[in-house]
Amino acid sequence: MTALLSRFGTALAGFLVLLSFGAFAENFASPGNLSLILKDTAFLAVLAIGFTLALATAELDLSIADVASLAAVVTGALIQGGTMPALAVLAGLATGLGAGLVNGFAVTVLGVPSLIATLGTAAVARGFGFMITQGVAFVGRWPREFTGLARGSLLGVSNMIWWMAAIGLLAWVLLKRTRTGLHMLATGEADEAARLAGIRTRRMKRLGLVLAGLLAGVTAVLLAASLSSAAPNMAGDHFLYAIAAVLLGMTMIEPGRPNIPGTLLAAFMLKALGNGLVLLGAPYYAQDIALGVIITGSVALSSTVMRRAAFTKRLNLRTAA
User: Fold this and answer.
1) Which uninterrupted H or E stretch holds 153?
2) CB 46 within 8 Å of CB 164
3) What percent of the chain has pLDDT over 90?
4) Which residues contact 166 (CB under 8 A, 6 or more apart)?
5) pLDDT of 174-206, one tens digit each?
6) Higher pLDDT residue, 244 or 17?
7) d(C-alpha 304, C-alpha 297), whole Å
8) Nearest CA to 42 among 285, 205, 219?
């Protein structure tokens, strides 16, 4: 029972909160509103999955939102300039990938802590975004084949939900069903032990940061396609929510560890929480207060779980000896 509560207690608490919204917030539980929450979750989830992959190797990517904004600006500038949508999309993805490569190089080759390296990349990306746009968003008529990436549907389900499900599944398979993913997790849990075991830990850390950058590019393309606009700060609102989704996700499914199912579930819970507060007529700042409490509480809970797991492991080792 204790093990079940440890894995699913946070999810259960979130489910109870959603039930209360369904009871007291008009239209919260309607199919249309739930579909809207899922579509809104997709942007956050894709960005948060990238952060999860970096954190799985014990590295932080604090540049994801600014890189996503820059990638959206690059994509928008090319489309507004008459470039084929497919090439513009590739340019946006390449922007995110390039930022990930820069972060990976700075961390694994130059030895710069990821906290500092990615903050530097964020500042550079933000500057280039404003330089390209001169502070003005790209708006106007966007090709339907581009906007359809986000606004279209398949089998009656929004493309955004399909994108989120596909990327989430691929990331989960990578981490849990491939040798590379297991090496990434081993690197994140015990860097030195993994290196002594023959795992190329620097390569794993570089891969985590590169994938985070690439998924920032994917988020950028989907955001631009959904909103038919591109601005140098358009992904900024997703930054803290992405971090919160990853940290909250670490309190469920696999407590104390970055995990894809937990991140996806937490992302949905956060978006549902915001939606429910709006429907209840809560002031705009209530979401920020709730977000701050969630971030602090999830870190505290994850740290407690990790300390307890480490203590149990040491105890078992002494007993075996």
Assistant:
1) strand 153-154
2) yes
3) 53
4) none
5) 999 999 999 999 999 888 899 989 999 999 999
6) 244
7) 11
8) 219
Residue 211 has which token pair? 């994938």
- Only one residue has tokens 């040798």, namely 179
Cα gap 300→274, rounded to integer Å: 22
Please check whether residue 85 is in contact with residue 273, taking contact to mean a CB–CB distance below 8 angstroms.
Answer: no
Residue 311 has a pLDDT of: 44
Distance CA 103, CA 205 (A): 10
CA 50/CA 127 separation, integer angstroms: 22
Distance CA 259, CA 185 (A): 10
Rounded (10°) angle between helices 239-249 and 285-320: 30
Which of 56, 263, 94, 47 is closest to 178 using CA atoms? 56
Query: How many Å apart are CA 300 and CA 127, to the nearest integer?
Result: 34
Identify the burial level of 309 via C-beta atoms within 10 angstroms of its C-beta, where 0-12 means exposed, 13-18 middle and 19 or more buried.
middle
Q: What is the C-alpha to C-alpha distance for residues 243 and 295, in angstroms, rounded to an integer?
A: 8
- The burial class, CB within 10 Å (0-12 / 13-18 / 19+), for 225 is buried
- Measure Cα distances from 183 to 103, 107, 176, 254, 261 in Å: 20, 18, 10, 17, 19
Residue located via tokens 């966007």? 142
pTM for the whole thing?
A: 0.90
What kind and span of H or E run contains 289? helix 285-320
- Distance between CA atoms of residues 111 and 123, nearest Å: 19
Question: Which pair of tokens denotes residue 287?
Answer: 């979401």
Q: Are 64 and 192 in contact (CB under 8 A)?
A: no
Tens digits of residue pLDDT in 239-269: 888 998 998 888 888 887 899 999 999 999 8
Locus of tokens 């699913």: 8
Contact 263, 246 (CB under 8 A): yes
Q: Any bridge partners for residue 230, and if so which?
A: 138
